[in-house]
From TrEMBL:
Domain of life: Bacteria
Keyword Transmembrane helix: yes
Subcellular location: Membrane
Name of the protein this chain belongs to: FtsW/RodA/SpoVE family cell cycle protein
Amino acid sequence: MSVVTNTTTIGAIEAPSRRNTELMMLAFAVAVPVFAYINVGLAIDGKLPTGVLGYALGLGLLAAVAHLVVRKFAKYADPLLLPLAVLLNGLGLVMIWRLDQSPRLIQRAESQWGAFTPDAPKQMLYSAIGIALFVGVLLLLKDHRILQRYTYISMVTALVLLILPMFFPARNGAKIWINLGPVNIQPGEFAKIIIAIFFSGYLMVKRDALALASRRVMGLYLPRGRDLGPILVVWAMSILILVFETDLGTSLLFFGLFVIMLYVATERTSWIVFGLLMSAVGAVGVATFEPHVQQRVEFWLNPFAEETWAQSEQIGQALMSFGAGGTLGTGLGQGNSDLIMFAANSDFILSSFGEELGLAGMMAFLMIYGLIVERGVRTALAARDPFGKLLAVGLSGAFAIQVFVVSGGVMGLIPLTGMTMPFVAAGGSSVIANWALIAILIRISDTARRPAPAPAPSPDAEMTQVVRP
């Protein structure tokens, strides 16, 4: 019997989904924090902690749910993003629980507030909410290009989120919180994602005008006057945030994000120089009359000054904790970073890792953050549409700026900003918002790595005689 069939010489190349690779790395990402949890318990009490099974099951269940959703709804997504985020989240939970066991912190809380409330259970709840938002984003956001429709709505939403803290009381000198009864929200964490969406949509439309319509002055391509409007508005907004909310971190994040995306969209080095000059002028201008900013700079320059030690004590203790850690660290559960008191598990949690893991551990820790940024940039390079490229770069840039600003402030490289380290610091707003950020990057990477559909058969395809017995 003979059968004649039509075959084409061109076919779709099926790309590997890499989901099994992701699953194996997730197992490793869960095992490392569980081992660290056991290590802390042995260092503190000399025996296995009673909650290790619940912690392992809780973190493993959250990772499994996230993996199953990615496997089903983002089959071709980057296999590294989810394991890296789970690893950081798990290590953060371990360090927060370790600080909850500190007798000094317990005694200080009982004497100052009358009772001590551990932060680790709340952080596990926030992590679960973050994974739920992660799942929701992947289920509802079928295509990241849908976000482009909401460019100007995103701008309005971001402005509202950034302005709202002005109407609430300041905490530790900065107005970055919204207090709704027992719930405290830091809107800047969510605003960074929404701002990236707005910048991506705006620059995709205006990039040609910003890149080509310019004047060459002293080797730099300077923008035309009509194109300076949006840049000046963004610059003025960052300065207003710094003045009225005394929030140096959000101001740096906001303006730095715009400069990065502007450079990527136009490929003009002059925009970076122009942006740095504007940020320097704004920072110096505000620092000359804003007492809180002046105080932050003074503490940065002289953290061990005797006359200001009562206010700069935490910065000095953080620097000493890094020094005490040495190269290999004191070991998990054996440091004294709890002397930093209430900020030990939030603003200064990086110093806790630095003391107990040492320089080697800190380099590995920061490398995890660097890998997330690298995978985000790789996603931008692979994206097929300009909006996806800009959005991936914007989200990766916002994440990188926040890591630099926080770690630089704690290590004494720049003045302290009061922002929280992504995924590891105690606080619901940060961990929830960063899980949403990872979900959007995964959606973009899934679209970028998804194989193109097979071309339709051509009527002129070669006729092949297939003979079957």
